[in-house]
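call fold target=ErfK/YbiS/YcfS/YnhG family protein
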Amino acid sequence: MTERMMYRAGIELLIDPQSRQINVYIGKQLSKSYPVGVGKATTPTPAGNYQVVNKVTHPGGILGTRWLGLNIPGGNYGIHGTSNPSSIGKLVSAGCIRMYNENVEELFPMIPVGTPVEIKAVPGYNQKGSIVTSSPGSGPPLDHSSYLVQPGDSLWKIAKKYQISLEELLAVNNIGDPHMLEVGQIINLPNL
């Protein structure tokens, strides 16, 4: 089947760096979701609305087996495979969106140049990756509904500190494995 035959009208991609998922919508209906690795706190994946501008098979090296380039200003960002599959589900990249090679190979033929891509903003981060804080005279203080993971933190410690059950913390943050926690990750804190 050619790429043109596999293309479906109305396809859009939504990337959620917080849940580390890429969602494929066809005609506004969720068709498929894949786990991804995204930018670390110091080099976050830039939020915004973009488009796929180029496609490359076998880009090589850390880019895995496929590359979908995005028109993000100020850099060379894309959705790509990886030579390090253990990085999927983590905050590890310089801003790109990493996928398992088999997943990006499945997605690649469905995505034509021009496909819209929305990257959701991560609450509590500005575009430079810093935690947004208020200063005197800058408006109301933050409600502290999110927490930036620090070295030595665990979900158990965070839950205890904020008197939240571990199960509730896992559910609110869409985390399946309580051991999957990265320094720089933002954790939503319910009922605060």
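return ok
The chain has four helices and twelve strands. Residues 8-119 form a domain with the L,D-transpeptidase catalytic domain-like fold (CATH 2.40.440.10).
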